Amino acid sequence: MIFDPRDPQHAVDGVPFETLARIRAEEPVCPSPQGWFLSRRDEIMTCLEEVTTFIADLSGMSELSDRAEVPEDELFLSEIEEPRHGRVRRLYNSCFARHRLAKLGSFVEDTCNRLLDRLLAAEDGAADLHIGYAMPIPSLVLSRMMGLPTEAAQRFMEWSLDGTLMQRTPTPGVDPGGPPVQQYFGAHLARRRQESGEAPKDVYRTLMEAEIDGQPLSDREIVTQLQFMVMAGVHTTRTFLTHLMHRLLFHPELFRTLAEDRSLVPNYIEESLRHDSPVQSTTRRTTRGIELAGVKLASGDWVEVGLGSANRDERAYEDPDVFRLDREDPRDHLAFGAGSHICPGAALARLEGQTAVEVLLDRVAEMSPVEGVQYPPLPSSLSDLPIPARLVARA
Question: Strands (DSSP E) along 124-279, which ranges?
Fold first, then answer.
């Protein structure tokens, strides 16, 4: 069979996990409209770990015909090949280092509380947990880390909703100066270069002062990597946070369990990442011929990597379709990828997820769906669909 992991109908009907189970059993490497779809954890681990054989290619997200159209300094982090990938990645690791996240913790908590203040004060009693809570958190946090004014967070959300966040300069119809997000970063970068005095120790400064092989990063490369940070740190993370809210909304017994035992919140975060993977699939291109599960892939083949399918592989997980808080190794999932190219922002996403859930449990006694509302399936790409809820504040 041919399986299309990017079928827009999945956003309406939900991810067809029964079909994926059948594919894993019968044809683990099956054709997709683009090339091949990998469904099992074993083959996907091979793909994620052999980074010189399977290189990331996000050109399809921007309607490009081939990654070759993208200049070297406009490749996103995941697309940069070794050894440069590792050197650029170290800059990301510095931006999201543990000591920086430790200082950010109180800001994330304050942000969650401010957002809940507004939601709990809603006159009609209905609060949108997507646009009003899950989505602003990563936008506000990332703009803070980047040393940008608060209004940047609103722009991040707008670009995430209208799709321009995923655009690239060579895409037909995109301004030659770059998509709005790159133009915004470029203007701020120019202002930062003109400023005198000691610059704040933020993401901009890290990238501006960096050298790779004795050469500084070009302005275009800096704004490209900043764009990629927002793509992952806002667009993907808001999906993750909304999944957390969505499941608690429709499973009040789970809400009560976590409220009574906060030690289970980290397990809830990890099981959400596994069971409701915020990224169901990602893309790779082969650089050489290789055989997986008896199927021969040719050099240059497009490969869709089913992370969500791998996270429900019967060979790797007991009761894979059951949402459980008692898994022996809760972090044993591929939501952030695997291998040397694992997501560098994973710790930040976990911090935001755990804080968002804990603050919600601190402030809200119970919540319930709003009658007559069509909610998106879980997991979902979400689009701009609201997640309205009736919230009852704790006394």
Answer: 126-128, 211-212, 215-216
Which letter, b or e, does each residue of 128-144 get, where b requires 16 or more Cβ atoms within 10 Å of its Cβ?
A: bbbbbbbbbbbbbbbbb
Q: Is 216 within 8 Å of 193 (Cβ atoms)?
A: no
**pTM of the predicted model, to two decimals?**
0.94
127 strand-pairing partners: 389
Q: Can you give the three-state secondary structure of 178-221, one letter per residue?
A: CCHHHHHHHHHHHHHHHCCCCCCCCHHHHHHHCEECCEECCHHH
Q: Report the Cα 271 to chain-centroid distance in Å.
A: 16
Answer whether 212's CB lies under 8 Å from 88's CB.
yes
Residue 168 tokens read as 């690239």
* pLDDT digits 0-9 by tens, 109-131: 999 999 999 999 987 778 999 99
User: Rounded to whole angstroms, how far apart are CA atoms 288 and 276?
Assistant: 33
8 A C-beta contact, residue 189 and residue 218: no
SS3 state at 303: strand
At 261-318, the pLDDT tens digits run 999 999 999 999 999 999 999 999 999 999 999 999 999 999 999 999 999 999 999 9
Residue 367 in contact with residue 389, Cβ under 8 Å? Answer: yes
Task: State the residue for tokens 């050099």.
Answer: 299
Across 288-304, b (16+ Cβ under 10 Å) vs e yields: eebebeeeebeeebbbb
Domain 10-393 - what CATH class? mainly alpha
CA–CA separation, 165 vs 58, rounded Å?
13
**315 touches 41 (CB < 8 A):** yes
Amino acid at 306: G
Q: How many CB atoms lie within 10 A of CB 394?
A: 11
Q: Are 309 and 82 in contact (CB under 8 A)?
A: no
List phi, psi (to 5°) of 94: -65, -40
Domain parsing of the chain, residue ranges: 10-393
